[in-house]
Design brief:
The complex is a heterodimer of chains A (293) and B (364). Chain A is built from 13 helices and eight strands. An eight-stranded parallel sheet of chain A has the order 1-8-7-6-5-4-3-2. Chain A is 50% helix and 13% strand. Chain A is of the alpha/beta class and 293 residues long. Chain A has a domain at 6-82 and 147-273: Alpha-Beta Barrel (TIM Barrel), CATH 3.20.20. Chain B is an alpha/beta fold and 364 residues long. Chain B has a domain at 123-286: 2-Layer Sandwich (Dihydrodipicolinate Reductase, domain 2). Chain B has helices at residues 11-22, 36-45, 54-60, 75-84, 99-112, 126-137, 172-188, 281-284, 295-310, 319-335, 349-355, and strands at 2-7, 26-32, 50-51, 65-68, 88-91, 116-118, 143-151, 194-201, 211-217, 223-229, 239-246, 249-254, 257-262, 275-280. In chain B, the strands form two sheets. Chain B has an eight-stranded mixed sheet. Chain B has a six-stranded parallel sheet with strand order 3-2-1-4-5-6, with helices on both faces. In chain B, strand 11 (239-246) and strand 12 form a beta hairpin. In chain B, helix 5 (99-112) packs antiparallel against helix 10. Chain B is globular. The chains are: A alpha/beta (293), B alpha/beta (364).
């Protein structure tokens, strides 16, 4: 299933801003209420953006509730979950230690069997079962919503990549496909390196989301290596951080991304209707250029 | 290739391990942790050769360098062992808990001519480097005040079960947060000569301080303030900021940006107009070969590797440099006015482990 050209991101809702802590705080203030978030998502929807690419932040559960309750209003709406919201994990590990944190993050409600399985998996260091349970725990909030693509968040992808725990990518890939009938995706700051690893695992034509911007911000390996990878390697690129937190003007930023025809989708976040409209219009305008061989 | 070992595979340890394994010049030959659980997972799923005993790892692996990321209380003895084998050492912050011991180790490292580095990663954040550069330029005029702050959501309820919640183990906001703030003062301005009005308070913790405040005094008459609180949920993650006031302006820097206000343009900063100049992380960050959580974590490991290759002794964050932060911590502990933290308890888990022959654990 092809992805939409334009995906809507969630950083702005949860106080994530790579440019300014003050701005991040102002956004966190503004989006304290669910209504404020829904209003922005509605604006994006009105502009034709129907895919929300979001972390499994605990507040996303409320957003999911809204979309479940109003499914008639959003008949074609899609969620692309990105898991996990890493600070949830990091804070739990700091407070409780690694093993206890794992125990806490594994599902405890519902089926006793899941708990039992979790306990046994923990004791046996059965990493496949542990990962499956963690994925299921993160996916709980998205129940009954359409999630055709499920991403592994970059902190986890890149941690596993550095540790060379490559099998985890395969486990994630297989579980997302078999249990959720979804396409697995990987977010990374280290695109060329990740592609090598996924290739070696035989994961074909993977969806990979990475920073792709004109100034090379957080593109490890360098802009040229990214451009080469996008042009020559078989994967489905999703561009994020295209504006490099505002360091690049909108037209210039989008022009750079759209000039690389193999980029399938672009994810961006914005807080205002005018901004969303302008960005969407620019992407639409610059995406129709003929593909240069 | 630099044959490197790692001890302590907790939260910071795993992050260092991932970065070090991705580094083209480091050959991460083995890891060590007392948690057999972690060791089993890493050896099975990451193909890492693992030990549960540091002595055994040091004896069996011909290492060039050791990365230490264990709980703070264990640092000194491990650094000592590594120096005994003439290894280059990267040690997590804080360097050591006892200044006299730190002085001995720093001087031993100097004598052995090995590279030493402590994990004060903020010195590798572009915005803080820019702040240090601007202050060093003299453009602020005579500096008269410095403020370093760190806030974050570490301890938010009455509960604590890791080494971070035990004073003796080097836990508490003083060692975990204030050290960073103090090191930034040392980096961006200079180390203070004395401290006063120190407040160390518990908010939720039973045994350690959750907030630390204090006044710093510098040799030229400038004053400073440190303000840290790790029980502040309004911050998504640790947030650190330094401000410097001088007769010709001021600077405020955090991880994202460096804001400069100049009353008058200054010859030391050609092209910088009077008034506000802001530079952002997108402009100030230098590209790293591998990214995990922030450029600074990779940049500091890269710097360590380069130091070893170039035999650069006394570079950024050397033992000596980190010891300057430990000394300020010691002054703050000596000056603390409120409230009395519980006296020495019987040895904690780590202390007992240590007495039992330096086994290591790092469920941090």
């Amino acid at each position: 299933m092809p992805m939409d050209r334009v995906l809507f991101g969630d950083n702005q809702f949860f106080g994530v801003n790579h440019m300014s802590e003050e701005k991040a705080r102002a956004q966190a203030l503004r989006f304290q209420s669910l209504e404020a978030i829904i209003e922005v998502l509605d604006s994006a929807y009105a502009e034709g953006i129907r895919t929300f690419m979001c972390t499994s932040h605990e507040r996303v559960a409320d957003i999911c509730d809204h979309f479940r309750a109003h499914s008639d209003k959003y008949p074609d709406y899609l969620f692309y979950p990105c898991m996990p919201y890493a600070h949830k994990y990091a804070n739990a590990v700091t407070e409780h230690g690694m093993i206890e944190a794992l125990r806490m993050l594994l599902p405890r409600d519902g089926a006793m069997a899941a708990m039992l399985k979790g306990g046994i998996a923990l004791a046996n260091k059965d990493i496949e079962s542990i990962m499956q349970l963690l994925i299921d725990a993160e996916m709980k909030m998205f129940e009954q919503l359409r999630t055709p693509v499920i991403f592994m968040q970059n902190v986890i992808t890149d941690l596993l990549l550095g540790l060379r725990m490559n099998q985890c990518f395969r486990i994630f890939h297989d579980h997302v496909r078999s249990k959720y009938g979804a396409e697995p995706g990987f977010i990374t700051m280290n695109l060329p390196r990740l592609l090598d690893t996924l290739d070696a695992l035989g994961i074909e034509n993977p969806i990979v989301c990475a920073n792709i911007n004109k100034i090379g911000f957080r593109m490890c390996g360098g802009t040229q290596a990214y451009e080469r990878a996008i042009a020559n390697r078989r994967f489905r690129p999703v561009a994020m951080s295209i504006f490099a937190s505002g360091a690049i003007s909108p037209r210039e930023a989008i022009d750079f991304v759209c000039a690389q025809p193999r980029i399938e989708s672009i994810v961006f976040g914005a807080s205002g209707r005018a901004n969303i409209r302008q960005t969407k219009a620019l992407i639409d305008e610059l995406s129709v250029r003929p593909i240069v061989a | 290739m630099i044959r490197t070992g790692m001890i302590g595979l907790g939260k910071m340890g795993l992050s260092h391990l991932a970065i070090a394994r991705a580094h083209p010049e480091l050959d991460l030959v083995a890891g060590c942790d007392a948690s057999t659980y972690l060791i089993d997972i890493l050896s099975k799923h990451a193909g890492l050769k693992c030990y549960t005993d540091l002595d055994k790892m040091l004896a069996e692996e011909a290492l060039d360098a050791l990365i230490i990321a264990t709980p703070s209380k264990l640092h000194a003895a491990m650094v000592d062992k590594a120096l005994g084998r003439n290894l280059h050492i990267f040690c997590e912050k804080p360097f050591v808990l006892d200044v006299a011991e730190g002085e001995r180790l720093a001087s031993l490292a100097k004598q052995k001519e090995v590279v030493t580095q402590v994990g004060y990663h903020y010195r590798f954040v572009g915005a803080f480097r820019e702040a240090a550069r601007l202050v060093a330029s003299g453009a602020l005029g005579v500096v008269h005040h410095v403020r370093a702050e760190a806030y974050g959501p570490v301890v938010l309820r009455r509960k604590g079960s890791t080494w971070r919640s035990t004073q003796e183990e080097g836990g508490g906001a003083l060692y975990d947060y204030a050290c960073h703030a103090i090191d930034l003062v040392n980096f961006v301005f200079e180390p203070p000569t004395s401290v006063s009005g120190i407040v160390r308070n518990r908010v939720f913790s039973g045994d350690v301080d959750d907030e630390v405040y204090g006044t710093l005094h510098f040799r030229g008459g400038a004053s400073g303030q440190v303000s840290v609180n790790w029980s502040d949920e309004s911050f998504r993650k640790m947030s650190t900021k330094i401000s410097v006031w001088g007769t010709n302006g001021r600077i405020t820097a955090d991880r994202q940006e460096c804001q400069l206000y100049l009353r008058e343009a200054h010859d030391a900063l050609p092209g910088v107009a009077k008034g506000w100049t802001v530079r952002y992380t997108t402009d100030l960050s230098e590209e790293v070969w591998f990214y995990l959580r922030g450029e600074e974590y990779s940049a500091q490991i890269e710097y360590f590797a380069r130091s070893i290759q170039a035999r650069r002794l006394g570079g950024e964050n050397s033992f000596e440099s980190a010891l300057a932060a430990d000394k300020v911590v010691a002054m703050m502990l000596g000056e603390a006015t409120t409230p009395d933290l519980p006296g020495k308890r019987r040895g904690g888990f780590w202390a007992r482990l240590r007495q039992g022959g330096l086994a290591v654990n790092a469920r941090n």
